[in-house]
Specification:
- This protein is an alpha/beta fold.
- The chain folds into 2 domains: 157 residues, Medium-chain alcohol dehydrogenases, catalytic domain (Quinone Oxidoreductase, Chain A, domain 1, Alpha-Beta Complex); 141 residues, Medium-chain alcohol dehydrogenases, catalytic domain (Quinone Oxidoreductase, Chain A, domain 1).
- Helices cover 30% and strands 26% of the residues.
- It has 11 helices and 15 strands.
- Strands 3, 4, 5, 6, 7, 14 and 15 form a 7-stranded mixed β-sheet that branches. Strands 10-9-8-11-12-13 form a 6-stranded parallel β-sheet, with helices on both faces. A two-stranded antiparallel ribbon has the order 1-2.
- The longest helix has 16 residues.
- The radius of gyration is 20 Å and the shape is globular.
Length: 328
């Protein structure tokens, strides 16, 4: 099969290679998927660059997410899965060297979900880590129906899915963004209120919007960078779930305030999150995309041969949605 890989870390054009590797075979409980589209996440580029630590394997085929067709199954897998269109996640990760940057991938069927016919493979490849992370962070503190949710970075890959899933689940959504264009994107996803954090006082606006009550739960893209605005914006008994902390890797916490107000704080890393939560996320995402009322944003599409350009598009930081690499 054709695949991309790297044997050392560094800039995309210096370390990414393309060539032929053995086509894998599905083991017990696994499916062999013909990959039609592979999603490129910031974590994929960061791992290749070396920002997530040294290489865990001598060779890595990158990318966690993707979509394609099941072409073979191993033992203990229902034959009915053959020929099904699917999306998947957790291809390349800690504990697994070979991901979806190839024509084929074999995966535990636990990581595979049906892809509706009306959703393209490229759109299916935008799910995986972004949508799954959004769901796990959104429901970390329980049901959101009837609650007020703050999503920071509500136009980003994860944030935009969090906005849409929160709206689908019956919540009122406030989103923060950094530009008028991103404000429109957040509103289109279902945010009832949008705050431009570059020009507005986020905490003051949330107090105004909620009548001083604050929000029930925060899905946060930058815990350290946003803490000064998010902490005073959470009501007593509320929660913050964060999946990144770029603004400050070691933020200072007002522990006494957290205790007095009984605020629950928790980080989210998808591959190591609870299995039950991930299975619920797959099920809910499947029901949500089947409604047809969803925005699955493909930022750009690149051939497997142009994977370096795809990684560079992610690293520029100005993409809207998910960068996709196609191999079929």
């Amino acid at each position: 099969m054709r695949a991309i890989w790297y044997d050392r870390q560094g800039p995309a054009r210096e370390v990414l290679q393309i060539g032929d590797l053995p086509t894998p075979s599905p083991g017990p409980g696994e499916a062999l998927i013909r990959v039609h589209a592979s999603g490129v996440n910031p974590s994929d580029a960061g791992m290749r660059r070396g920002g997530a630590g040294p290489m865990a394997y001598p060779r890595i085929v990158p990318h966690s997410d993707g979509a394609g067709v099941v072409e073979a199954v191993g033992s203990r897998v229902p034959p009915a899965l053959l020929g099904r269109r699917v999306w998947f996640y957790n291809g390349q990760r800690n504990g697994r060297a070979f991901g979806s940057g190839a024509e084929y991938i074999e995966l535990d069927v636990d990581l595979v979900s049906p892809l509706p016919d009306e959703v393209s493979y490229a759109e299916g490849a935008t799910l995986g880590i972004p949508a799954m992370t959004a769901h796990v962070a959104l429901f970390r503190a329980g049901a959101v129906q009837g609650r007020t949710i703050l999503v920071t970075g509500g136009a980003g890959a994860v944030g935009h899915y969090a906005v849409q899933l929160a709206k689908w689940a019956g919540a009122s959504v406030i989103a923060t963004v950094s530009s008028p264009a991103k404000a429109e994107r957040a509103r289109a996803g279902g945010a009832g209120f949008v705050i431009d954090y570059r020009t507005e006082d986020v905490a003051a606006r949330i107090a105004e919007i909620t009548g001083g009550e604050g929000v029930d739960h925060v899905v946060d893209v930058d815990f350290g960078g946003n803490l000064a605005a998010t902490l005073p914006s959470v009501r007593a008994g509320g929660a913050i779930a964060f999946y990144a902390t770029r603004g400050a890797a070691r933020p200072e916490l007002a522990a006494g305030e957290l205790m007095r107000r009984n605020i629950t704080l928790g980080g989210v890393v998808l591959p190591t999150s609870a299995h039950e939560g991930r299975r619920r996320a797959q099920s809910d995402i499947g029901r949500w995309i089947a409604t047809g009322r969803r925005m699955l944003q493909v930022a750009s599409v690149h051939r497997l041969e142009d994977a370096a350009a795809a990684h560079e598009a992610v690293e520029r930081g100005d993409k809207v949605g998910t960068v996709v690499v196609t191999s079929a």
